[in-house]
Amino acid sequence: MRAPRPRRELAAMTGYHSPQVDVRVRLNTNESPAPPPGGFSAALAERLARIDWNRYPSRSAEALRSAISGLHGVTQRNVFAANGSNEVIQTLLLAYAGSGRRVGLFTPTYALHGHIARVVGSDVVTAPRDAEFSVGAERAARFVAAEEPDVLFLCSPNNPTGTVDDPETLQACLAAVGGYGGLVVADEAYIQFASRQPGQASAVDLLAEDASLAVCRTFSKAWALAAVRLGYAVAPARIVEELHKAVLPYHLDALTQEVGLACLADAAAADRRAAAIVAERERLAAELATLPVRQWPSGANFVLFRPDGRDGAAVWRELVDRSVLVRDCSSWEGLSGCLRVTVGAPEENDLFLEALADVLA
Ligand SMILES: *Cc1c(COP(=O)(O)O)cnc(C)c1O
Known about the structure:
By secondary structure, the protein is of the alpha/beta class. 39% of the residues lie in helices and 15% in strands. Helix 4 packs across helix 8 and helix 6 (137-147) runs parallel beside helix 7.
């Protein structure tokens, strides 16, 4: 008997890997160290008590999309909500890329952009970032003109480097894809940790009904809701309409919609949490500067660093031995020797810094 044959694209791939090790200090997946505020669970319980469990959820998720649209001064027709921004990205790729089309990335960047692109059957084309991990308007324009990707990802702040692109880079990408009908997807999973720096704007500011742009946001980071899968895109209404064709009907269940609404009722709490993380990130960066490591400026809730003259994977293991888990990026293309640490609670950051100083002594 012959085994069933997975699609050719999948046979060449490996799954998504982020080791979940049982340790005291978990600083490997860029989650919020603190849960949503105290009132959240009680407000949610009330909302859940009102769900009609025998009925399908709202297919258009109108209440949730309307609440999200209020954050950005757009209309509900400009918002597409889904199960994490990963499903937003998948839906964007199903609608605008798919089999035989091209998806462009600036590497190193978020692994799932390329991974999901391959799963939907697209060809992935890449351009390397410069030594500081910046893209830059000129490099972006040259790459887009040469490759004409149907979908171009621009991740800012970029995971795993923390790099924030200048607004000119996004403008250059938009101008370039406009020449042949491509789409720019700006992944802003970490934007709440960057927008506190003066002069740094969101791609949402460049949205207009004729823009070739979709901006992805998530509730997994600054909103402290990684346990629930909720993310969204802000985009021109005609793009949102296409996304609703590509996604499964009733994809966003009633629980997730209610969780989102309960969380959005206290947007100020998310802002306070983000401000506290930014302050801790600056402290962490200052402390790292006293250790024998190279680090890169971050606009996110993590810091990428490379221990001087040490094998990154060995340092990662020695940190795990001290019950501290960070992300080992040392074998990723363009990130030789690098580790990424999520900014945690102050006590967690202290334990990480102590362990790292000990490992590097
Ligand atoms: C964490 C992260 C996301 C979030 O994905 P969810 O599916 O919403 O949890 C999206 N993009 C980037 C770049 C990320 O690092």
